[in-house]
Amino acid sequence: MEIGNQHDPAALAQPPLRTAKFAIGQVVKHRIYPFRGVIFDVDPVFANTEEWLASIPEEVRPRRDQPFYHLLAENAQTTYVAYVSEQNLLPDETGKPVSHPQVPHFFKELKRGHYVSRDRALH
After folding, report:
1. Quick check: pTM over 0.90?
2. Which of 29, 41, 25 is nearest to 112 (CA)?
3. Digit-coded pLDDT (tens) for 101-111
4. Which one, of 96, 99, 100, lies nearest residue 114 by Cα?
5. How many CB atoms lie within 10 A of CB 3?
6. For residues 116 and 104, is the Cβ–Cβ distance under 8 A?
7. 39-49 pLDDT tens trace
8. Alpha helices in 1-123 (DSSP H)
9. How many C-beta neighbours within 10 Å does residue 2 have?
10. What distance in Å separates the CA atoms of residue 112 and residue 84, rounded to the nearest whole number?
């Protein structure tokens, strides 16, 4: 007995990718934790290690099937790079710049709460 139709292209199709809610250069804040940052890259779905995902407590572990954002992040103590699911981000409406030292590497200036990307050659 054959289950499903192996020759049906629709049966092999990937689930549709969601459009990212936030954009590169946008300043965002975490929904739960006290940090904010500027987005410098976006993964359409989870693209980190299984160890990273498993380190998040199950009750707050994000779904894999959503965009994940790379942030130049800051909190009251330090700056760092964060990897955050879309479900855990909100727009940051303060209009304040992000003080991460790598911001000038990716962005030219902050205009109306959004960083303008540098024109960079890709490797």
Report:
1. no
2. 25
3. 999 999 999 99
4. 96
5. 5
6. no
7. 999 999 999 99
8. 9-12, 50-54, 103-106
9. 5
10. 23
